[in-house]
Amino acid sequence: MIDQRLLPNEEIFREYSTAEEVAKSIEDMVIRGAPAIGVAAAMGIALGMQTVESDAASHFEAICERMARTRPTAVNLFWAIRRMKDLFHQLQNRPVEEIKRELVIEAQKIYLEDIEANRQMGQFGNELIPSDARILTHCNAGALATAGYGTALGVIRAAVEHGKKIQVFADETRPFLQGARLTSWELHKDDIPVTLITDNMAGYFMKNRNVDLVIVGADRIAANGDVANKIGTYSVAVLAKANQVPFYVAAPISTIDLSLPHGDKIPIEERSSREVVEIHGKRTAPEGISIRHPAFDVTPNELVTAIITERGIARAPYTQSLKELAERK
Fold first, then answer.
1. Of 121, 124, 302, 321, which is least packed with CB atoms within 10 Å of its CB?
2. Phi and psi at residue 283, in whole multiples of 5°?
3. What is the pLDDT of residue 193?
4. What confidence tens digit (pLDDT) does each residue in 284-312 have?
């Protein structure tokens, strides 16, 4: 994995040989982004089983439980674990070597399917993008957050591939700076014009008619279309509504959680306060103060113009449209 904590200054790849190392890499945000977390977890499970010689079932359950404890909000993680579990239960009476081999194949399928889903998402999303669009995005929903190509940035890439002249405003996305460090890095490498702004500048540019649309990714989408995404997304959605700017969400079907009726049920991860009060190890606030760090917020469905998936575009009422897309083969 490329260590996303070090970008854009260092491009360092980490190699892992145990399931525990993969789990720690997810917890420590070496890798992040809901689809990428799901792929990494599947690979970690397959990797962890390679040294097992007996009692495969108990080892498998322990590895799955460890992966499930890494990040609570991104539903893709639990989707991938469930998919690996379904396969294991089908194979558990087979020879151990066959189980190991099939788990690796399944993890690789999840990886390749994610890339294809992102490309399909891009084609659907391209239909919503004007030819000279100025697009605001929040956090990083690109190749780094997925197995490749990206969700929100995948839509932008698809628009560019169709010859559209796109300009992107990237929120820096405090406190982890995914927009500044990752989105800007990805777009710059692809020669897509990008302008970095601080999070509290988004309203200024919308009010002055410099933004034609907003597109973001998602970590979990409830059955009614409420969207959990990186903290600050809700604020951007409110500003978009106030300034009559379309607000789009791009996410694979695996991000939709039909078991949750609305966003109030989505678990919100609270991360270390150090990420709020330190930048590159230097403290930016006084000692002894109270600090909160919810890593995600939930945007109500009424602020979402449309949800772009690899099976098509969902619009309100989302309870109906998301269910239809999730059930489509």
1. 302
2. -75, 140
3. 97
4. 999 999 999 999 999 999 999 999 999 99
Which runs of E-coded beta strand occur in 13-137?
134-137
The CATH 1.20.120.420 domain(s) of the chain lie at 19-119
What is the spatial distance between Cα 218 and Cα 225, in angstroms, rounded to a whole number?
A: 11
CATH number given to 19-119: 1.20.120.420
Please report, rounded to a whole number, the percentage of residues in the chain having pLDDT higher than 90: 94
What stretch(es) of the chain map to CATH 3.40.50.10470?
Answer: 122-327
Q: Measuring CA to CA, which residue among 127, 166, 118, 121 is closest to residue 145?
A: 118
Asked whether the CA dihedral 141, 143, 145, 146 is positive or negative, the reply is: positive
Q: Mean pLDDT, the chain, as a whole number?
A: 96
Separation CA 43–CA 119 (nearest Å): 21
d(CA 281, CA 106): 39
How far is it, in rounded angstroms, from Cα 237 to Cα 225? 14
Residues designated as active site: 219
CA-based radius of gyration for the chain: 20
DSSP E strands, the chain: 134-137, 167-171, 194-197, 213-216, 220-222, 227-230, 247-250, 256-257, 278-279, 282-283, 296-299, 306-309, 312-314
- With a CB cutoff of 8 Å and minimum separation 6, the contacts of 258 are 223, 322, 323, 326
Q: Return d(Cα 206, Cα 215) in angstroms, integer.
A: 13
Amino acid at 41: A
Pairwise CA distance, residues 136 & 58, whole Å: 47
pLDDT for 190-206, tens place per residue?
A: 999 999 999 999 999 99
Residue 328: the pLDDT is 86
Judge contact between 248 and 218, C-beta under 8 A: no
- Give the global pTM: 0.92
Instruction: Tell me the residue length of the chain.
Output: 329
pLDDT in tens, 92-140: 889 999 999 999 999 999 999 999 999 999 999 999 999 999 999 999 9
